[in-house]
Write a structure and sequence with these properties.
With 197 residues, the protein is an alpha/beta fold. It has helices at 13-24, 43-50, 66-78, 96-101, 125-134, 169-193; strands at 2-8, 30-37, 55-57, 84-87, 106-110, 138-145, 155-162. It has six helices and seven strands, in the order βαβαβαβαβαββα. Helix 1 (13-24) crosses helix 6 (169-193) and helix 5 crosses helix 6.
């Protein structure tokens, strides 16, 4: 059974997609052992508690410096001995010590087709604003392994989504989540849980 720790900063729609996929049997041989957020007010923590999943907030604001936060974050992860860490809209730079300790066992979902619209500064609505400003006709989402760069790790899955006339960043963001992120993130977890990658 793959022990999965999910890190999230906001509402937790990707977390909900994972929970729903486990409940529906689209993810097998995996269990969510902890949800970590950097934001005390993140609705993702409520989603986790509602399903009886351990939910913890570790915020940089609660520590005097980044080094102490990094140590606390690593401890919080280590406590549950995860086989896989899933970054599902986690807007905190993962400490290098975590990346080293869990090398090859951290995945992230990015709301674009890497290598487009990725790297430093490309997160949330900014990704979709950039895609629309560039005039692309197709965007999508990518699940990739995390390394010490920003969106530079090996790609696991990608799914394309059409950009439609009249799209706003918010409308495009929702379509990418519904048609790509919520599909390929659970698929990637299931692949890892069942030795298919």
């Amino acid at each position: 059974m793959l022990r999965v720790c999910v890190c999230v900063s906001g509402g937790g729609t990707n977390l909900q997609a994972i929970i729903d996929a486990i409940d529906a049997g689209r993810i097998t041989n995996a269990q969510l052992v902890r949800v970590i957020s950097n934001n005390k007010g993140a609705y993702a923590l409520e989603r986790a508690k509602n399903k009886g999943i351990d939910a913890v907030c570790v915020s940089p604001k609660d520590y005097e410096d980044r080094e102490r936060f990094n140590e606390a974050f690593l401890r919080c992860v280590d406590e549950v001995k995860p086989d896989l860490i899933v970054l599902a809209g986690f807007l905190v730079v993962i400490p290098p010590a975590v990346i080293q300790q869990y090398e090859g066992r951290i995945i992230n979902v990015h709301p674009a087709l890497i290598p487009s619209f990725c790297g430093k500064g490309y997160y949330g609505l900014r990704v979709h604003e950039a895609a629309l400003a560039r005039g692309v006709k197709v965007t999508g989402a990518t699940v990739h392994f995390v390394d010490e760069g920003t969106d530079t790790g090996p790609i696991l899955l990608q799914k394309a989504v059409d950009v439609l006339p009249g799209d706003t960043p918010e409308v495009l963001q929702r379509r990418v989540m519904e048609q790509a992120e919520w599909v390929i993130l659970p698929q990637a977890i299931d692949m890892i849980a069942n030795g298919k990658c």
